[in-house]
Amino acid sequence: MIRYTNVFDNKNMKIVEQGGCFYVYEHQMDRSNSAYSASSAYFMREMNVKKRQVLAQLNGTSIRIQAGAMQWTSGNVNMSSGVNLGNFLGKAIKAKVTGESLAKPIYEGAGCIMLEPTYNHILIEDIGAWGPGGVVLDDGLFLACESTVEEKVVGRNNVSSAVFGGEGFFNLSLRGSGHAVLESPVPREELFVFDLENDVLKIDGNMAVAWSASLEFTVEKSSKSLIGSAISKEGLVNVYRGTGRVLMAPTLPGTMNSLESNGPEQTSANAHLFSN
């Protein structure tokens, strides 16, 4: 028997999301600061830059996590690497092309597993809700999943998306039943969700963090003509076509135009808008 003190009853830790066996804890204040770091910590907290941790509660079940992500376990929980001579080469190739860890340790039994803290935003996704084909993830998003979720690497089926899409040649795909934990660069509140039904979504840049495997992903000109694309200054766009879902991060760091180029171009026709 284990008695937990200042863990689950910690007033500084708040559960902000839950799905399956996973719970996301958010540290409301970073109290371990010195006089030199207190100012930075204060403004980080005001801007929602907080430490977050994932807790998995196992009840005879099992999960897979990124290598090195475990902070502590309690109870009758056992770990296996999930790597053997038969699957080592395949896992090594998958890790190389997706940027994920080679070995994703499997934890099973009855007890708790707490993952290391991160400043990234945590999303818990019901993989079954993405349909039978599952979901395709942008590189580096995967953190953990229930073992009922199947992993596979999917490659581009056309040259345009592989070369110009900005999403890489291969991505990790999850399918089946169960929940997965993703590390997102933006909070869920800032994600745009597009549910397509035999329709088309075009995005200027690689701002999609996840999309249904059932969607056809290509890269196309924003206009039917090269001249039109040049005049519109949009060039190539990522196109998602078919039936499925897309999660888009419109506020993804690095996607904003420079301040000098924001707003309408100043010409003689609209110069009065900028004058005092």
What does this structure look like?
The protein is mostly beta strands and 276 residues long. The protein has a domain at 13-185. It is 12% helix and 43% strand. It contains four helices and 15 strands. The chain has helices at 38-46, 88-98, 159-164, 226-232; strands at 13-19, 22-27, 52-65, 70-80, 106-115, 121-126, 135-137, 142-146, 149-155, 170-176, 179-184, 192-203, 208-212, 216-221, 236-248. The strands form two sheets. Strands 1, 2, 3, 4, 5, 6, 8 and 11 form an eight-stranded antiparallel beta sheet that branches. Strands 7, 9, 10, 12, 13, 14 and 15 form a seven-stranded antiparallel beta sheet that branches. The protein is globular, with a radius of gyration of 22 Å. The N and C termini lie far apart (73 Å). Residues 226-233 and 258-276 have low confidence and may be disordered. It holds the Pfam family AIM24. Residues 257-276 are annotated as: Disordered.
